[in-house]
Amino acid sequence: MAAHSQIEAITARIVERSKPRRERYLDQVRSAVSRGPHRAVLSCGNLAHGFAACSPADKADLAADVVPNLGIITAYNDMLSAHQPYETFPAIIREAAREVGGVAQVAGGVPAMCDGVTQGQPGMELSLFSRDAIAMAAGIGLSHNMFDAAVFLGICDKIVPGLVIAALTFGHLPAVFIPAGPMTSGLPNDEKSRIRQLYAEGKVGRAELLDAESKSYHGPGTCTFYGTANSNQMLMEIMGFHMPGASFINPGTPLRDALTKEAAKRALAITAIGNEFTPAGEMIDERSIVNGVVGLHATGGSTNHTLHLVSMARAAGIHLTWQDISELSDIVPLLARVYPNGLADVNHFHAAGGMGFLIKQLLKAGLIHDDVRTVFGHGLEAYTIEAKLDAAGSIVRQPAPEESGDAKVLAKAEAPFQPNGGLKMLTGNLGKAVIKISAVKPERHVIEAPAIVFHDQQELQDAFKRGDLNRDFIAVMRFQGPKSNGMPELHRLTPPLGVLQDRGYKVALVTDGRMSGASGKVPAAIHVTPEASDSGPIARIQDGDLIRLDASRGTLEVLVDAAEFSTRTPASANLEQNEFGMGRELFAIFRKNAGTADNGASVFA
């Protein structure tokens, strides 16, 4: 089915805007293709170093330059539950490569940090910048020019976007992303949230809180709520980087291992040595990017991707803007209710029909482009399936169901949970921001209240505990942008603001920081740009200023006389405490050179 006319129009606009940069990028990709990749360009000394640790058979194959060599970029570590399963993947991939006459080598490892561990801690100030560090680390691994294709083992928040940036920077190589899957369901997310709120109110202690958290995050795999990590997996499938049906299969299962082997074999099948050459830079185009944005809206995905998708697109020479994202949100209905937008987790989403059902619905409604290239071939129709194992242990793909397995979790396009994706751009005299309202009740879409200004999460926590916040207000949390302190997520604000909202007060948050995929029931204008450290208007807000956040109209304004507001001296903040400790001194160059939030907050912009 042809794409919706408005989808086509937005896509065409992105194509036209991107032309100069995209054409330069494709010229570079094609030039790199013409020069390789093959081992023949390496000297004998280069090559000997490159396969010194291989088996004799693999050495012979690589020396002859007649078999494809698969580079593995891995984000494995065994502290992160989502990445722990990757420990065994290289062995599975090597075996799969040998079965089809290829070779596989681990090309390099990249860092993978957990926002759940660093939440509210100094290490969180490295989190966003780790995306660009991951891209560079993956680039180092692939720079040896030993590889005909690459597979990427990564799953969580900044890791996948960083790996995508690297894959598109090395766009002359085919690239397949291999997920590890979500952990099995534990304590329901709404119960975990309830315990967190009780802890914020002082009604339960740390022991009860830790018990609830441990029952929620209890085994290998991604966290089961629909945050950035699981939004990443949705994106990789709908953009065609995954094998069909691969995203949400639990780790440690026969189907998971079979899909991993299949992905490795497919990566070797689409190299320049074969007949289905699919370089990542040619495969991903403006239609692929639009499909990713549509999937994000249809599932109520992470606000972090207003940063990441912009940066990922730029790596392929494509200029995506917040305006594009916001306009697509107005068109795309919400088809999934997964926590924090509902009570279900990603395992329930998968059981209800998952990605196959979702993509089928979006295609039927003309909301995504079918005429795209993927690692599986041409067209997204091939992704409207469920992956299973037959009696012999081989992967079979069956058509996705026509009806949702749980109408409270997955809806049809003609009967959505809400008519839009709930992720909007806000504009006004405070600059630009984004807001996610898919979990915010309609009566809270417009908040007008006096500002209370904070420069630190702990300041708000302390004010809450003193009882100073029992009133209508908009919390302005500034100096949290990329240039200030790396733009940390501000999840410590969610429980106290949620408590105040439940007490009947009108509350909202305005910040140049992030809230990510856990953005929930409290209205939050985030990623405000220009940020306070760039002397943005947010730096001129004073306690008591009336602020109007209107998610319905898409506006964010301080209701102060314009002439008086413009003459105010921007506030300053002592950020020295953010410059040292937990590695923050190593990232000074990132803070200094970070781009604006609407350009992805990247050092590559």
Short structural description:
With 605 residues, the chain is of the alpha/beta class. The protein folds into two domains: 5-184 and 219-399, no CATH class; 423-599, IlvD/EDD C-terminal domain-like (Glucose Oxidase, domain 1), CATH 3.50.30.80. It has helices at 5-35, 44-51, 56-64, 89-99, 115-118, 127-142, 159-169, 189-200, 206-216, 228-238, 254-269, 280-283, 286-299, 305-315, 322-331, 346-351, 354-364, 457-466, 482-485, 494-502, 562-567, 588-593, and strands at 69-74, 103-109, 149-153, 175-177, 373-374, 377-378, 385-389, 395-399, 423-428, 431-436, 446-454, 473-477, 507-511, 524-529, 546-550, 555-558.
Folded structure, characterized:
- This protein is of the alpha/beta class.
- It folds into two domains: 5-184 and 219-399, no CATH class; 423-599, IlvD/EDD C-terminal domain-like (Glucose Oxidase, domain 1), CATH 3.50.30.80.
- It is built from 22 helices and 16 strands.
- The protein has helices at 5-35, 44-51, 56-64, 89-99, 115-118, 127-142, 159-169, 189-200, 206-216, 228-238, 254-269, 280-283, 286-299, 305-315, 322-331, 346-351, 354-364, 457-466, 482-485, 494-502, 562-567, 588-593, and strands at 69-74, 103-109, 149-153, 175-177, 373-374, 377-378, 385-389, 395-399, 423-428, 431-436, 446-454, 473-477, 507-511, 524-529, 546-550, 555-558.
- The strands form four sheets. An eight-stranded mixed beta sheet has the order 9-10-14-13-12-11-15-16. The chain has a four-stranded parallel beta sheet with strand order 2-1-3-4.
- A hairpin with a 5-residue loop joins β7 and β8 (395-399).
- α6 runs parallel beside α7, α8 (189-200) crosses α20 and α10 crosses α13.
- The radius of gyration is 24 Å and the shape is globular.
- The mean pLDDT is 93.
- Belongs to the IlvD/Edd family.
